[in-house]
Amino acid sequence: MKRWSSHRLLLLLLCILIAAIPLIAARGQSGPASRAAAPTDVPKSLRDLAAGRGILIGTAVEPLPVRADPDYAPLLTREFNLLTTENVLKMGPLRPDITTYYFEEADFLVDFAESNGMKVRGHTLVWHNQLPEWMTDRTYTTSEMTWIVNDHITTVVERYRGRIWAWDVVNEAVLDDGSLRPNVFLQTMGPDYIEKAFEWARAADPDALLFYNDFGAEALNAKSDAIYAMVKDFVERGVPIDGVGLQMHVDVNSPPNPADVASNIMRLSALGLQVQITEMDVRTSGDPSEAERQAQIYAAMLEICLEAPACTAFETWGFTDKYTWLGTQTAPLLFDPLYDPKPAFFALLDVLNRAADQSPLP
Ligand code: XIL
Question: What is the distance between the alpha carbons of residues 149 and 107, in angstroms, rounded to a whole number?
């Protein structure tokens, strides 16, 4: 009798234990992890905040880290809603010979952007750099070069018709003194190559936004004056152009004057053009003491963009110092090489948050 009751007691205890397992497990889940997942506690991303302010926030992307670095794509798609093709649509990588187009890499990035709700800036149709060897190895007549450029723009823009939101149609055609860069296009086709490029791009995709893009013309100087005069002339003569891209590759020790950048954007927008900050990075010596100053420069430029209704996108040239054309040691971007956010990232978040507080959109 006594033996039976101790068995029963054991059985009872076992039953109580089994019944309690789900409760214990549920308790484990109700800790900090599940609280962090509650919607109200998740910090808003750059892209969420920017969307609320009516601008796009973007970055330049190469296919390799998207495919090979598991930490890269999640951060990219969390923070940005605009993707610029960093290299894959340049003439060199795209056209291994005069009649062949190699679209695989660009297709990959455009597909990736679409499946992650990001718009695409196509960079770039006509540029003096990263040209294929078959173009630089010999000279071409005016009609040959006209065919090459027309075929290029028509083929590439038509292929991505309705999928590439904005194009850098012509990149870096003006020198610091305001004269036209003596590149292979100017030499063979004459100064009209620029407006022809815009006309061919418009014909290939009437809905894509068409930009002239350049560096060192963010503030007021001979170069930005010349670009202003050029695009003013285009607008007056009906050459199809929608905007000007300010690359914004700047140095932490000599950033452009914010008031002058604002004036430049204002005069361009008075022509009815959009302006986009297209390639911002802020080069430092790599000393972490420069990170705060770097953050202030990023913040100042985003503030200017937000204050100008014509400024429709703000883009950085990459987002992690792990992958930057300037070299990791110059630490020019928003995240460090281990993907930790830097003061520059928090400064942009802060500007977007403050802007949202000041004038909430309906
Ligand atoms: C740079 C790319 O980031 C590099 O990977 C490449 O080796 C050279 O070109 N202005 C531009 C961009 O318009 O196309 C450049 O991109 C950076 C400067």
Answer: 21
Residues 6+ apart with CB under 8 A from 115: none
What is the position in ligand 1's atom list of the atom closest to the CA of 324?
A: 3
Length of the chain: 362
Cα distance between residue 106 and residue 93, in whole Å: 10
Q: What is the pTM of this model?
A: 0.88
Q: Examine the pLDDT at 62 and tell me if it is beyond 80.
A: yes
CB 177 within 8 A of CB 136: no
Sign of CA dihedral 199, 167, 265, 317: negative
Q: Is 236 known to be catalytic?
A: no
Tokens describing residue 224: 């930005």
Pocket test for ligand 1, best of 129, 172, 276 (most atoms within 8 A of CB): 129
Q: What is the full DSSP assignment across 25-57? A: HHHHHTTHHHHHTSGGGSPPPHHHHHHHTT-EE
Residue 155 CB coordination number (10 Å): 14
234 three-class SS: helix
Cα 313 to ligand 1 centre (Å):
19
Q: Whose CA is nearest to atom 13 of ligand 1?
A: 171
User: What is d(CA 313, CA 122) in angstroms, rounded to the nearest whole number?
Assistant: 14
Decide if pLDDT at 239 tops 80: yes
Q: Which residues pair with 243 in a beta bridge?
A: 211, 274
> What is the Cα–Cα distance from 94 to 107, expressed in whole angstroms?
11
- Residue 198 DSSP SS3: helix
Which tokens belong to 227?
């670009």
CA 308 to chain centre: 19
The CA 192 to ligand 1 mean position distance, Å, reads 25
Residue nearest to atom 2 of ligand 1 (CA): 325
CA distances in angstroms from 48 to 72, 280, 343, listed in the order given: 19, 20, 19
**How far does CA 335 lie from the centroid of its chain?**
14
The string of pLDDT tens digits covering residues 89-103 is 999 999 999 999 999
Active site residue 104: no
